[in-house]
Design brief:
With 385 residues, this protein is an alpha+beta fold. The protein has 2 domains: 173 residues, 3-Layer(aba) Sandwich (Aminopeptidase), CATH 3.40.630; 189 residues, Aminopeptidase (3-Layer(aba) Sandwich), CATH 3.40.630. Helices cover 34% and strands 28% of the residues. It has 12 helices and 15 strands. The strands form 2 sheets. Strands 1, 2, 3, 4, 5, 8, 9, 10, 11, 12, 13, 14 and 15 form a 13-stranded mixed sheet that branches. It has a two-stranded antiparallel sheet with strand order 6-7.
Length: 385
Amino acid sequence: MADQLHIHVVESARDRAAFIDLPWRIYAGSPCWVPPLRRIIRRQLDFRTDPFWQHAEGCLFIARRGTDVLGRICAQIDHAYIAQWHEPVGSFGFFECVDEVAVARALVHAAAAWLQQRGMRVLRGPMSPSCHGEWGLLVEGFERPPALLMPYNPPYYRALLCACGLCPVKTALAYEKTQDSQSPPALERIATRLLRNPRVRIECLRKAGLKRNAEAVRALYNVTWSAQWGFAPLSAAEMNEFLDAVRFFGREELAWLAFYDDQLVGMCITLPDINEILHDANGRLGLRTLWRLLFQQRRLTSCRTMLLGFLPQFRRTGLPALLYHVSEAYIRAHFQRIEFSWILEENLPMQMLIGAIGATVSKRYQLFELQLPASPPPSPADEHH
């Protein structure tokens, strides 16, 4: 029947194009949605070439009623996560859906069944494709566009996921600090004291030295966040891809490393929020967009601190405040606002630091979870996998 709902595995070029194009329908007329660059999404979903899929496997599903595309989802197994935590947890991402519970349920069922067939006992998400990408579902803060590499979705997505039996399992926060919000005088005193310490050294992460420092930065990143809930270690290829973005979009005045007795112990990396440019690009990296990315970044008004991390024994030494302090003069001179994201709700020490410098909660995200039985349920008759 023409009005019957079908769930298909994405195999053809036609289905892949429909999968990539669906958000332009879901977010039609939304003033806050930032269309992703289509070439980036195609790369992320290429199981042969994207670095994430070197240690992961996945399957794309699309929902159709007749010729009408209604939803999409990606089921994922990150073997780096499983090796880290020894948990049979799979995930879903790239979820988009019309406001129809039946469609959402069919998509979630397809992803869950695919994961169950491969021994997974938990479905968790959304994460596109991992904790290093767009993580979580936006549940508060819909009135503002997302910062670089942060998710955005319609408000009704939370109700859809709950109707599918998923429950919130973690909450993460985004903090914002505006140009007129002054940092406390204590911040400068802490920075001055630490800079006088001969055992402390700070350096810009120079673009010319990114490749040379890549492995050291990756090792620090993986140790620093290793105990954080849901973390999966970053591979060398994934770190190189991130540093390529730092090289292309970043500014040396916003990337700092901290050393103690010549040991790399922490880092703070902030990137200009190029979503301000991509908002009007409509997913295409044309000559105008490329020109703006290369030569008009100085007009950007926002930035995002993506990484502020230290080895555990150095987190209460004042060094995190020092690295932010050395960035702040540049930030205040060139940007109207900075976002710190994301921070888990239970990470009270980081929340205290960010709050102390005058930032306030601006957005809230949730990750959802569904327990899976040991054997997959039979597929509904109206689904084709």
